[in-house]
């Protein structure tokens, strides 16, 4: 496999969009992520997801051989691609891309064919196949309430917590700065490894980080142009 | 089911029986199988003017493909929504092709069965059904080959293979039907010859695809290893069903059996006894080959080497 | 399936925007819910790294989810965030497998295989039964025939019950003498040596790095990313971003090693040898006069103190003060003589003086050769070469030398930094120790060597270096400066258990007999918990000759601890606890200890109860606050089951038992928070005869606490706290460092030479000999002024041999590690946590080195047998490169067979494999979580090499 880090020289944050428009994106600092799973769990609780359904996976990888071994953590959620494979694949149009770059699934329109899950290069989607419960034997108050927010037989994935963003923006808050307008995982991350903001604004924290620390994207070769950038764990030479 | 977070090369989990919905998750493979055999049978029956085959194709299309596919969907009552993205989605197109095929072939078969004299309509239905059958036959192959995320599927091999396998499957069913419905000797012989060629073509394409793909990239190699049963994930028997079922049972043995018949070029009683098993094996082989190809779809790992 | 919310409104064709509502306070209404959601402030104290404030987001009558509380970002070291465990609290509250009402045992037979047959009863019945039991007990007398308290109470979870127990401490104090020494694994399995010696050298319970200013952290198994909570995780993440270097020395690549700059795969239990090798390299291979902080060594440590031929401090004939040698004046002076020009660190001098030894014994010399402690240190360390250490550690000697070099190079000797307007030294190097490193044999040596490294670099209790977290044995707990005052010989005061015959006579008796066996642990509130708890248990079944077997407590109350899982030797624990006459548990779910209970009272969980608790300025860990004060824990929504608040339960019991007066008085005296209800210009005291409601009690404590913080100026009531969560006042950050107060009092740390320990150890030896105790020999060896160091893993091999088994048969050291998702076993019943933990290496089985696994024919995911000399169990193999070939690893404390959900996890517990051996205990009565095991595939005839 080609070393992805070597091919990252120039990815200026350029969505090709008007600077007037927002393009929400995320930056993940691999130096700071410690694999604690706070993001995964806070997201699950916030969105009321049942067992096994996660919107962000923190992939753990061990590389090398004893005694020269390294392990690192790579949080992966929907990349809110600029060229989403899922969007093209989705036969029903349930998958949509908003003007601000957020890719969503409308569960009312989804027919559960799972083509989007197959085509997603980041395996960012989970199919709600059956109603799974942590406490299957006895009806559980919380589960009864919260699982009603999702439809069995449809697709689930990270939606950048757009309810929080929309709600916040309407109240004059700034996504990425004001917690109430920022995704749950970002505000909960205890490594402070996650940043959120407007990629179209060259002065936003996310844009600056990408510029200054040469942010890169995963599987750039697929051409999906993700809105999530990573900051390398190593200081690049 | 709790997903693992430790991922190197991982296999797709959504198609071909890796789900939690019991038999409903198993329904995609029959759909794909009948989605190939039905139009294949239709085409071969059309060319050999074999009415029972046309009927059988229609039944397979509706019961074998339509119902199973619907059962596979998470929300089957919304299947019609699947037509809403014809511009981009191969599933949308597949549904469209299927609807076209179903309508045109039904009309054609009914008119033909009634012996109706509406030349223009018959002609139109015949050609629409033929074209839509061809498209319908090939669409799952295109559906796979457009998945950028899974390198193993990304080539012209898939549509080609899916196409050829469909025709082969159709021929196999038609020959099997010959036991119950009279099928002219020379038709059978012609079909056998074509089938023989198709078998060899599929074998060659399949093997060379495996070799080329395994040389092409890491994820492809992982998929090939899976099919050959030498990947750790093959504990579930992947190797056995592909090598034994799809290659040996589904291709090599039928080729051998047909070779015998082709050499003697005469359909004796003995060779008839060989045809049916060969065709059965061939059908099983097609199923397993498709199953294997779909299951073997592996993603490249998300993690860059650091 | 019922639908509502976002998708529902979309289906109805209403644009999302129109369904959003906000109330005046700007509270939000995500998802266009019809009802407003509100944020309720509370805190998490599931582990001792808290309390960490957060918001419950409540929708209608249900706690919907949890969010950080950024209002406290400026004051809390976690910046208002909470860790993964806190997000599990919603599931903890609504857990269908909770105990939902008081339970009474119906099966009189107790045993692991005997179903207790618990039956639900009403609270009224439960109160009457328990109060009746306790009344009867008081009538018999608080102490039994042998002088042990009849009531024993166990609280665990490393002190975190205090954040939940409400007025439980007041109830206990009202009761009278109680035995707290029948505990779980806390204390003895924790950072045990660090707890005891930490109070000597840091006046602290735990020693941490001053990470925000640190340049180089050398961590021996200090598993920050799992164990140091939000603040620890965050501070280290920030430091990584800034570019500090962290080296993790550990037998396996832990989650903390994963984010470190270097992983050094050391052989288990050889951490002390590694540090000894470093000290040798600094003292004997470098020019220590150049690389060390000489000024600090001379002025802040006992390095210049002269040591007499018997090994005690050499003292002035008249004053009895310790002597030092002034090389300028060429004469000996008492250490605090202001006219001293310089302090000799090396050499040998002829002086007059006297030594005072055990029991006041004196040796008087007109002329005697004496050397400074530092000279003795130099000689002592000579034999511990990096080569010697490297052999034990199974590492190249060059690694030890390189790390020693990096350590001194990063110390920046001479630098200063300004904090709160005060200039203090900046020595940005620190050594941190994880738990198995600092308990059991070798624990003292590791703590001592770490402190010597800090001494050499002057990084002891200064900016960037090693600093203590809040102290526990010495009061006040929350302010380190005010706990320091001058004691003997120029050191700060310590209160140890007496070792002289006179004062030992009327020591209170507990089942762990700590006042008699462990001088260092003292006799304050926390002492019983840090006492030789394992021995208290062991003596029930393995009592040494001549040593009194402890009596069973008439009533044993368990609260938030699960000794039958968390203590060593679980099988022995079951056998012992099943014979206890009457067990009462305040419980959450059934667990392996309350399985034996006669009565279980289910209490409110974290999101249901009401209580005020201290926050800041520091807790047991790397949580250093900028402010301190009080925070409220409060119910977010009505409790789903018939559970009660601890305060309510305690008031009710106090009343029914007939100790309401004492109970109220204990609250008035400030027993829970250190806050008296009466002060200069306020009086919120409870009328001792009246029974108060939960809210009344906490309302008064809220008011009094704020008065206390504001010197009587301000008042806040419960309602205010309900809305605002916490009240804090600034805490000058400089107070987190002892250095300024040491300078102010002119005090020295008793390092490197443990003169007092030598005296105490000798006295203790005599006292024990007088009693005929000869089985504390190994432990007495620890009282060395300059500790010797050896091959500690060998002890674990010998322990196998002493059982008549062959150590060769057990080629692996089994070690144990924590996971961030679990707080001990306390949240083991939550499937959400299991799911999160399963995403991290190590959870769910036994980790084994890849090449070893290959040799044994084991693949990832295989079931394998783990066998120690006492236990055999199967587990899932997790094959990884990141672990030493001679080591296997298990995570957490599972192996449950009673806790719902956890009992189906089938994960081995370290404690089942351990077996007692007196040589595996240190002087504090703690052992280490290490055992030799073999691993093989089932049916492979135990061929685990
Ligand atoms: N194998 C192994 N053993 C260890 C350790 C290890 O690393 N590995 N670590 C050791 C250390 S350092 C420590 S400090 C100890 C800690 O060990 P313990 O102090 O014994 O703590 P837990 O095992 O968590 O037991 C806490 C109990 O409280 C119950 N509980 C949970 N929530 C509530 C609640 O809200 N209310 C009430 N009333 N009860 C509740 C749980 O059911 C659980 O059984 O363990 C030691 N033992
Ligand atoms: N999430 C979470 N945090 C906690 C707790 C919890 O239960 N959960 N418990 C709290 C309590 S009570 C305590 S005492 C602390 C404990 O905190 P730590 O001591 O930091 O935690 P552990 O992971 O138990 O042990 C530290 C590491 O030492 C390694 N180790 C074992 N033996 C050796 C050895 O001989 N040498 C070296 N160098 N390393 C060795 C272990 O593999 C492990 O990775 O954590 C506290 N924080
Ligand atoms: S990451 Fe996957 S699901 Fe998300 S937008 Fe890209 S292709 Fe679609
Ligand atoms: S599963 Fe739903 S979202 Fe995914 S492609 Fe099919 S219809 Fe679209
Ligand atoms: S952005 Fe929101 S939905 Fe996406 S992973 Fe984070 S918390 Fe979950
Ligand atoms: S919460 Fe932050 S540090 Fe923890 S796993 Fe997620 S991204 Fe990494
Ligand atoms: S670190 Fe401990 S106290 Fe803090 S949020 Fe996590 S579990 Fe709670
Ligand atoms: Mo602990």
Could you please describe the fold and organization of this structure?
The complex is a heterotrimer of chains A (237), B (306) and C (945). By secondary structure, chain A is α+β, with helices and mostly antiparallel strands. Chain A is built from 7 helices and 9 strands. The N terminus of chain B is likely disordered. The longest helix of chain B is centred in the middle third of the chain and has 32 residues. In chain B, helix 7 packs across helix 8. Chain B contains 10 helices and 2 strands. Helix content of chain B is 71%, strand content 1%. Chain C has 945 residues and is of the alpha+beta class. In chain C, 30% of the residues lie in helices and 17% in strands. Chain C is built from 33 helices and 34 strands. In chain C, the strands form 10 sheets. Chain C has a 6-stranded mixed beta sheet, covered by helices on one side. A 6-stranded mixed beta barrel of chain C has the order 29-33-30-32-31-34. In chain C, helix 7 runs parallel beside helix 17 and helix 15 crosses helix 16. Chains in contact: A-B, A-C, B-C. At the A-C interface, helix 1, strand 2, strand 3, helix 4 and helix 5 of A face helix 1, strand 3, helix 4, helix 9 and helix 10 of C. The complex binds ligand MGD (2 copies), iron/sulfur cluster (5 copies) and molybdenum atom. The site of one ligand MGD has 33 residues of chain C, from helix 21, strand 22 and helix 33.
């Amino acid at each position: 496999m080609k070393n992805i880090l070597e091919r990252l020289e120039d990815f200026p944050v350029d969505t090709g969009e008007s600077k007037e428009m927002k393009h929400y994106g995320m930056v993940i600092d691999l130096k700071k992520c410690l694999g604690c799973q706070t993001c995964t769990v806070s997201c699950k609780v916030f969105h009321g997801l049942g067992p096994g359904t996660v919107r962000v996976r923190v992939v753990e990888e061990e590389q090398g051989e004893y005694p020269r071994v390294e392990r690192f953590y790579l949080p992966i959620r929907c990349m809110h691609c600029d060229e989403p494979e899922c969007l093209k694949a989705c036969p029903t149009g349930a998958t949509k891309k908003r003007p601000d770059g957020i890719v969503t699934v409308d569960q009312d329109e989804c027919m559960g064919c799972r083509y989007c899950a197959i085509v997603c290069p980041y395996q960012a989607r989970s199919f709600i196949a059956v109603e799974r419960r942590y406490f299957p034997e006895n009806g559980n108050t919380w589960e009864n309430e919260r699982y009603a927010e999702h439809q069995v037989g449809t697709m689930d994935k990270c939606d950048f917590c757009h309810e929080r963003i929309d709600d916040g923006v309407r109240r004059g808050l700034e996504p990425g700065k004001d917690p109430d307008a920022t995704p749950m995982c970002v505000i909960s991350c205890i490594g402070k490894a996650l940043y959120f903001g407007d990629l179209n604004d060259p002065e936003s924290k996310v844009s600056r980080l990408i510029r200054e620390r040469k942010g890169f994207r995963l599987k750039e070769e697929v051409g999906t142009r993700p809105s999530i950038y990573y900051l390398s764990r190593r200081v690049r030479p | 089911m709790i997903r693992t977070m430790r991922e190197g090369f991982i296999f797709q989990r959504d198609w071909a029986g890796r789900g939690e919905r019991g038999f409903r998750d198993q329904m995609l493979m029959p759909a794909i199988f009948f989605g190939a055999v039905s139009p294949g049978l239709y085409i071969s029956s059309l060319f050999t003017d074999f009415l029972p085959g046309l009927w059988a194709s229609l039944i397979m299309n509706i019961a074998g493909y339509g119902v199973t596919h619907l059962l596979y969907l998470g929300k089957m009552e919304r299947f019609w929504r699947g037509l809403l993205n014809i511009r981009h989605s191969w599933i949308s197109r597949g549904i469209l092709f299927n609807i076209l095929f179903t309508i045109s072939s039904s009309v054609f078969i009914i008119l033909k069965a009634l012996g109706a004299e509406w030349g223009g309509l018959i002609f139109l239905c015949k050609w629409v059904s033929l074209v839509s059958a061809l498209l319908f036959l090939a669409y799952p192959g295109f559906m796979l080959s457009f998945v950028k995320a899974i390198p193993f599927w990304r080539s012209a091999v898939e549509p080609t293979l899916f196409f050829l396998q469909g025709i082969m499957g159709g021929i196999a069913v038609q020959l099997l039907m010959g036991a119950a419905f009279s099928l002219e000797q020379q038709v059978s012989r012609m079909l056998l010859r074509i089938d023989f060629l198709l078998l060899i073509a599929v074998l060659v394409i399949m093997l060379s695809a495996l070799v080329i793909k395994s040389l092409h990239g890491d994820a492809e190699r992982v998929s090939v290893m899976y099919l050959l049963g030498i990947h750790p994930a093959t504990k579930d028997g992947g190797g056995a069903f592909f090598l034994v079922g799809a290659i040996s049972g589904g291709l090599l043995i039928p080729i051998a059996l047909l070779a015998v018949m082709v050499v003697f070029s005469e359909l004796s009683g003995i060779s008839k006894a060989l045809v049916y098993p060969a065709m059965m094996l061939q059908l099983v082989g097609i199923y397993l080959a498709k199953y294997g190809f779909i299951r073997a779809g592996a993603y490249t790992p998300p993690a860059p080497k650091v | 399936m019922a639908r509502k919310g976002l998708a529902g409104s979309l289906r109805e064709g209403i644009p999302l925007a129109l369904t959003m509502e906000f109330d005046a306070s700007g509270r939000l209404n995500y998802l266009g819910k019809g009802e407003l959601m509100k944020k309720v402030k509370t805190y998490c104290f599931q582990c001792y790294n808290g309390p960490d404030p957060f918001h419950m987001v409540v929708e209608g009558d249900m706690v919907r989810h949890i969010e950080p509380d950024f209002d406290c970002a400026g004051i809390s070291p976690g910046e208002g965030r909470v860790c993964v465990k806190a997000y599990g609290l919603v599931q903890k509250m609504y857990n269908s497998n909770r105990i939902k009402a008081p339970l009474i045992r119906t099966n009189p037979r107790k045993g692991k295989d005997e179903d207790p047959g618990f039956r639900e009863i009403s609270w009224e019945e439960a109160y009457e039964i328990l109060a009746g039991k306790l009344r009867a007990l008081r009538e018999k007398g608080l102490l039994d025939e042998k002088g042990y308290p009849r009531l024993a109470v166990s609280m665990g979870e490393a002190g975190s019950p205090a954040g939940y127990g409400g007025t439980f401490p007041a109830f206990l104090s009202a009761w009278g003498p109680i035995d707290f020494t029948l505990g779980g694994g806390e204390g003895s399995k924790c950072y045990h040596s660090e707890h005891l010696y930490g109070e000597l050298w840091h006046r602290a319970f735990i020693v941490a790095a001053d990470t925000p200013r640190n340049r180089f952290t050398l961590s021996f198994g200090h598993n920050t990313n799992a164990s140091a909570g939000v603040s620890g995780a965050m501070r280290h993440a920030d430091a990584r971003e800034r570019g500090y270097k962290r080296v993790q020395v550990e037998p396996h690549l832990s989650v903390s090693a994963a984010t470190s700059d270097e992983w050094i795969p050391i052989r288990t239990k050889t951490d002390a040898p590694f540090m000894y090798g470093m000290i040798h390299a600094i003292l004997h291979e470098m020019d220590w006069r150049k690389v060390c902080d000489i000024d600090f060594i001379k002025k802040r440590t006992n390095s210049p103190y002269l040591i007499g031929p018997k090994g005690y401090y050499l003292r002035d004939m008249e004053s009895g003060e310790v002597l030092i040698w002034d090389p300028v004046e060429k004469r000996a002076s008492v250490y605090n003589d202001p006219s001293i020009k310089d302090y000799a660190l090396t050499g040998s001098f002829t002086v007059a003086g006297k030594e005072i030894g055990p029991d006041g014994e004196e040796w008087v010399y007109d002329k005697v050769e004496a050397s400074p402690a530092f000279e003795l240190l130099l000689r002592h360390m000579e034999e511990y070469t990096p080569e010697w250490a490297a052999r034990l550690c199974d590492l190249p000697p060059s690694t030890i030398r390189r790390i020693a070099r990096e350590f001194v190079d990063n110390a920046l000797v001479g630098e200063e930094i300004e904090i709160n307007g005060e200039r203090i030294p900046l020595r940005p190097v620190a050594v941190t120790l994880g738990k198995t490193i600092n308990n059991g044999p070798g624990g003292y040596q590791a703590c001592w060597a770490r402190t010597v490294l800090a001494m050499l670099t002057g990084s002891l209790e200064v900016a960037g270096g090693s600093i203590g977290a809040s102290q526990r044995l010495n009061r006040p707990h929350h302010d380190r400066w005010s706990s320091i005052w001058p004691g003997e010989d120029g050191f700060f005061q310590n209160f140890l258990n007496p070792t002289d015959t006179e004062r030992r006579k009327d020591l209170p008796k507990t089942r762990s007999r700590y006042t008699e066996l462990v001088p260092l642990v003292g006799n304050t509130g926390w002492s019983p918990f840090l006492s030789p708890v394992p021995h208290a248990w062991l003596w029930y079944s393995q009592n040494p000759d001549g040593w009194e077997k402890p009596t069973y407590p008439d009533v044993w109350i368990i609260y938030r601890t699960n000794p039958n899982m968390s203590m060593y030797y679980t099988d022995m624990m079951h056998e012992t606890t099943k014979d206890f006459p009457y067990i009462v548990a305040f419980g959450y779910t059934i667990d392996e200890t309350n399985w034996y209970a006669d009565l279980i009272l289910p209490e409110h969980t974290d999101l249901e109860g009401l209580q005020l608790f201290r926050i800041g300025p520091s807790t047991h860990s790397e949580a250093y606050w900028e402010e301190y004060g009080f925070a409220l824990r409060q119910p977010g929504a009505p409790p789903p089951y018939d559970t009660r608040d601890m305060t309510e339960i305690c008031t009710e019991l106090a009343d029914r038992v007939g100790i309401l007066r004492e109970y109220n008085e204990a609250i008035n005296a400030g027993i829970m928070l250190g806050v008296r209800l009466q002060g200069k210009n306020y009086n919120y005291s409870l009328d001792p005869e009246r029974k108060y409601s939960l809210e009344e009690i906490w309302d008064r404590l809220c008011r009094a606490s704020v008065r206390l913080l504001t010197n009587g100026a301000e008042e806040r009531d419960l309602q205010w706290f309900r809305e605002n969560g916490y009240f804090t006042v600034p805490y000058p950050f400089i107070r987190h460092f002892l250095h300024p107060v040491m300078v102010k009092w002119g005090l020295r740390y008793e390092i490197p030479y443990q003169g007092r320990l030598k005296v105490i150890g000798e006295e203790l030896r005599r006292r024990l000999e007088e009693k005929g105790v000869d089985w504390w020999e190994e432990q007495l060896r620890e009282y060395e002024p300059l500790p010797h160091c050896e091959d500690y893993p060998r002890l674990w091999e010998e322990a196998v041999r002493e059982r008549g088994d062959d150590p060769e048969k057990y080629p692996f050291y089994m070690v144990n590690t924590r996971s961030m998702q679990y707080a001990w076993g306390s949240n083991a019943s939550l499937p959400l946590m299991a799911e999160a933990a399963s995403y991290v290496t190590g959870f769910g089985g036994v980790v084994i080195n890849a090449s070893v696994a290959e040799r044994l024919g084991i693949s990832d995911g295989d079931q394998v047998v783990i066998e120690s000399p006492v236990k055999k169990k199967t587990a899932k193999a997790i094959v990884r490169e990141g672990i030493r070939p001679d080591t296997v690893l298990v995570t957490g404390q599972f192996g449950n067979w009673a806790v719902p959900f956890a009992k189906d996890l089938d994960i081995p517990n370290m404690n089942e494999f351990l077996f007692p051996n007196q040589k595996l205990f240190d002087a504090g009565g703690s052992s280490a979580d290490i055992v030799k095991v073999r691993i093989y595939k089932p049916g492979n005839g135990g061929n685990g090499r």
